[in-house]
Amino acid sequence: MKIGILGAAKLGQSLARHLAEAGHDALIANSRGPESLRELVTQLGSRVTAGHVADVLNSPVVILAVPWTKVRDVLTPDIEWRDRVLIDATNIFVSYAPAFEIDELGEDSGSEIVARLAPSARVVKAFNTLPIEVMFAPRPDDGLRRVLFVAGDDADAVCVAQQLITGMDLYPVPVGPLAAGGRLMQLGGSLSGLELFFASRD
Fold it and tell me: How many Å apart are CA 150 and CA 140, to the nearest integer?
């Protein structure tokens, strides 16, 4: 499967690497253009290529891995999603270390904001509840798979995200629709930072 990744920082890089190892073709982009990613994609392997943001947006599945403060710059109204799958991997930080600050959304949620910014996309929330160092850390036992939560309103889009997660030797757990599940998964929600394992022993 061809996967587009918007964002080439730690999250985007790690997802590109692990998706490629799972047999997918990953196209990664940042705001500075593909030339700035030439050395990076060489390190990530032959199945990872760099492109422009517009190229990534034409992928059948797009992972949003940009900082929360850049989401509105990327998800512009002119994009025609045509029911393509958009996996929202963002967290609602407005500043990072040493002074972490979380966006105050009131009754709203980050996942719903993303869905409104991409109204013709099938939005799924995933890849945001664990730090990347934890998500792909060595497992305490070969019979265990680390759990990743998934939320979305479209069953087929959720299934796509689950397949990607399974392919990376993780265990997907759907937690309901985008609004309710997204709230559980975002920063401050009960699933944010929760590390669980699924025992896959026979």
Answer: 23
